[in-house]
Amino acid sequence: MNVRTVGVEEEFLLVDAETGRPRAVGNVALAVTDSDEDELTGELHREQLETGTKPCHTLDQLGAELRSARSTAASAAGDVGVALAALATSPLPVEPTVSPSRRYEEMARRFGRTAYEQLTCGCHVHVAIESAEEGVAVLDRIRPWLAPLIAVSANSPFWLGEDSGYASYRSQVWGRWPSAGPYGPFGSVAAYRRFVDSVLATGTVLDEGMLYLDARLSRQHPTVEIRVADVCREPDDAVLVAALTRALVQTAIQAWRAGEEPDPVRTEVLRLAAWRAGRSGMEGDLLDPGTWRPAPAEDVVGRLIEHVRPALEEAGDHDTVHELLKGLLERGTGASRQRKVWERTGDLAAVVSDATSGTLPH
């Protein structure tokens, strides 16, 4: 088997090392860095930087790429006097600053506070596909399994200086975009294109880049792009999310080739599954895609691993995924870690400081 390549984009906060508050210096950091432009880019807000890995065949290669990209971003942040933090939302209050670009400024004008408050950091996974037909087959068949990826990656419990009550509040804020969230099955490339054209024809979003579905066909690469995860505190957790995502894609393609129809679960149920995953992360019940009834998060993730077991084994990833999941369950998600630091210190600046220490390679 030729293992599909996988690549990861991660978004990070730029924070004051003393106060923990986000600093609007992303454009300055980009101006002074000499990194490859594909490795380090800006985002909607000046308080952010985004990294990107090269397409990778092995999880070891991906882990090395993630650590290298984080090191590059941390160095660029340090050059302008700030720290890099793998936080999917800012624990401390912030008034975000829109980056100086015509597109971002138009987004802010058109979407108001939804855009201004969208200081959120995600982890986007790209998996190679051979054709648009494969890609749409994947989109239709991975829908039931995207919510558990939110739970595994949950890393945003705090919002505007308070505990939000969610493990991934980023997923709630992201859902404010009119084009974001779960989607229905498409059935064919033609139907997918008609959907995209109909969205653009409404004049609501600026362009196809604002098609913020939980998963989509990439406009720039021959990949499916899965966009549900929070940026993870630990690089290992990002590798776990990427490994599960690649296995989901391969499993979906094999099912399509075998003539298996996708699960017809309604989009409304998927929204419930995503909400529950964002609410409790790995510390409560998720909806089990086998029954669409509540089940402990660890059991649902275990069911996900069983669902993709053949793909994991073919890629040589099965043992690594079990080790990565074991590590995650032992130390907890980023959200769990943030809350433990808060309970111990009562200091949100300490929460940010702890996140910066976990962001960099060990």
Describe this structure in words.
The chain is an alpha+beta fold. The protein contains 15 helices and 11 strands. The chain has a single domain (6-345), classed as 2-Layer Sandwich (Creatine Kinase, Chain A, domain 2). The protein has helices spanning 26-32, 59-79, 102-111, 113-116, 132-142, 147-153, 169-174, 189-201, 235-257, 267-280, 297-307, 309-315, 318-331, 334-345, 348-359; strands at residues 6-15, 40-41, 48-52, 83-85, 122-128, 158-159, 162-163, 215-217, 223-230, 285-288, 293-296. Strand 10 (285-288) and strand 11 form a beta hairpin. Helix 6 runs parallel beside helix 10. ATP-dependent carboxylate-amine ligase which exhibits weak glutamate--cysteine ligase activity.
Topology:
Elements: E1 6-15, H1 26-32, E2 40-41, E3 48-52, H2 59-79, E4 83-85, H3 102-111, H4 113-116, E5 122-128, H5 132-142, H6 147-153, E6 158-159, E7 162-163, H7 169-174, H8 189-201, E8 215-217, E9 223-230, H9 235-257, H10 267-280, E10 285-288, E11 293-296, H11 297-307, H12 309-315, H13 318-331, H14 334-345, H15 348-359
Helix pairs in contact: 2-9, 5-9, 6-10, 6-11, 9-12, 9-13, 14-15
Protein name: Putative glutamate--cysteine ligase 2
Function: ATP-dependent carboxylate-amine ligase which exhibits weak glutamate--cysteine ligase activity.
Family: Belongs to the glutamate--cysteine ligase type 2 family. YbdK subfamily.
